[in-house]
Amino acid sequence: MNPVWTVVGQGAIGLLAASRLHLNQQQVQLFRRQPGPFRYQFEQQQQGLRQIELPAATAPIRLVLIPVKAYAVLPAVRQLLPLLSADAQVVLCHNGMGTIEQVLPLLSPAQSLWFVSTSQAAFKPSASQIRHTGSGPSYLACLKATDALHTQWVQSAMALAFEPLTLVDDITPLLWRKLAVNSVINPLTAVHQIRNGELAQPQYQALITQLLSEFIAVAQHYGQAFDQADISRLVYSVIGNTAGNYSSMQQDKIHGRPLELDAITGYLLQRADEAGLTLPAHQALYQALRAGDQSLSSPR
Ligand code: KPL
To answer: What is this structure's pTM?
Structure first.
């Protein structure tokens, strides 16, 4: 019998992962605020629609994927702690940085922590519909050693949930790389309320260049070397590959939900502050989004 996976919440990436696990004959339960099973429609790329029903989670929880927004990670972990088994494997998956340091000290000696950084894209047209909208590489790293059996369970399940998945020893450089992408695309699309592809327009070019050079200065201070041309190519390739999509921050803003700003732009500003650096372009985006300020909404 396969071990049971618990997926926290009912966000787009979480339901994508839960659906793929379920369709690959894994046992999956959902840890949500609402009681009872959750029934939804899953639209896979080129594979049509599937109706899926997943049961509500029951304790003890041994294998748990927490694909919630960065600001919700700590509250979710605190809520889960009394329900976790002594050997629980906790997998985080979100944009931005800063949660690993917060969660690690909360786990007991035999519990382990993992992180998945993904470029899979999913969209919820309604509360009970989930659409897989884009595929891309994902990376998995173990942040706290565990035994061979638990390693095998986590690695094989995450490969099903996030395929194509690569196992890495050190997730930090990849998290910085993703931070570069998210710290440009997410706040800009949220401030201007545009699709990702609009950022390829020439009027955004100078600002994107400045955001990236500010990012590179901070990353370098923390031992992460990035080349401007290289990172710029990466950001423009994501802009091109996700041209028709709205970023998660644009969606959160338009629906009046909290923004992942503190784990993305805020994280960068905090690290810059500690390093004695100033980041005027990131600071301006941060302030515009914090204040709900629309003054940057016309770049022309
Ligand atoms: O990760 C994303 C997000 O929307 O959060 C990007 C890469 C910007 C794709 O939209």
So the answer is: 0.93
The confidence score (pLDDT) of residue 1 equals 66
Domain spanning 4-170, CATH class: alpha beta
For the chain, the domains span 4-170, 173-290
CA of 13 from ligand 1 middle (Å) equals: 11
Q: Is 178 a catalytic residue?
A: yes
Instruction: Give the model confidence (pLDDT) of 51-62 as tens digits.
Output: 999 999 999 999
Query: 173-290 architecture in CATH?
Result: Orthogonal Bundle (1.10)
Strands 138-142 and 112-118: antiparallel
Closest C-alpha residue for ligand 1 atom 4: 247
Distance between CA atoms of residues 66 and 78, nearest Å: 12
Look at residue 294 in the predicted model and tell me its pLDDT: 41
The answer to whether the CB of 118 is under 6 A from ligand 1 is no
- Over residues 52-97, the pLDDT tens digits come to 999 999 999 999 999 999 999 999 999 999 999 999 999 999 999 9
Buried-state track 67-94, b at ≥16 Cβ within 10 A, e below 16: bbbbbbbeebbeebeeebeebbbbbbbb
Best mutation site among 177, 198, 245 for ligand 1 pocket (most ligand atoms within 8 Å of CB): 245
Same CATH topology for 4-170 and 173-290: the answer is: no
